[in-house]
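User: I need a structural model of Single-strand selective monofunctional uracil DNA glycosylase from Vespula squamosa for a docking pre-check later this week. Nothing fancy, just the predicted structure tokens so I can convert them on my end. Input:
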Amino acid sequence: MPPKKRNCSERDDLFKNSNSKKLKLSMSDNKNICDDVKSCENLTEIPNNTENNNASSTLSSMQLPVSEKLLLIEQELCQKLQTISFPSSVAYIYNPIIYAFEVHAMYVQTYCNEPKKILFLGMNPGPWGMSQTGVPFGEISMVRDWLKLHGFIGKPSREQPDRKVTGFDCKRSEISGKRLWGLFKEMCGSPQNLFKHSYVHNYCPIALMDRKGRNITPAELKAIFILFFHYFYILIKYFLQGEEQKLIYELCDQALSKIIQLLDIKIIVGIGRFAEKRAQIVVSADNLSVQVLWITHPSPRAVGNQNWDQKTKQRLHDLGLAEYFSN
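Assistant: Understood. Predicted structure tokens for Single-strand selective monofunctional uracil DNA glycosylase:
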């Protein structure tokens, strides 16, 4: 029997009302969790006033699988990001970890149930990838046919008319995701060979868009009002917006640090320079023994990104990482 669809404005309040109940997630009850909003409320939030070190200590002491602890960290981050008051230029906020929770949780539980050596770090959800499936770089066919994930996909509380969430019925293909997962498929053969040593994760879990549906990345937040400098009141908003960007970075940095320590990551591969830079900042600030590397982002908009798969395969060989992805 197919999952019962729910009003996703209820799902957007999912993490606001859960404070003390224990997390109960397993592959067997995954359907029931997202089949009913009340089941979803069993998810635990780490209190907002918990310091980074205390939260990490709490997670370490909890008798939960690695995948469940990772989901807790993500929930805490989503809850805190919801408290940010974005400027009017950010007209739409998509949080696929909430409305696509069933598939996202299945991704984490299936492929991240033990420590990893390598973390591939992306930036934030794309409109035709993770925003549709709940999986980082989650191009539809790759998630369904290679990762073998499928399930209920809800909707954000407000949708941009040209960026509607239709889940696995989406007819658009995210080229970045198709390239990234396609390369892993070519090199590894099976997902199990890929995830034996590595995991794919996004630095920021939310997608931001303007009224026309243009993607606003975390890196772009601060510069969005530059064209309007001649209006003084907009100039003030510009400086205030820098504080919002700073807060996003602070929250996402904290979550990334927890995940690195939880998974005992030794190597971070930033997918693009932005992810590399944020990883370097986190590793340096928390004095973590982690090597930070990078590969070119698979976006077709990137300059000189023809033959991305061949170039990236060679890049992984040059970095000494290809041995971890043998078929």
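Before docking, keep this in mind: Residues 78 and 103 are 16 Å apart (CA to CA).
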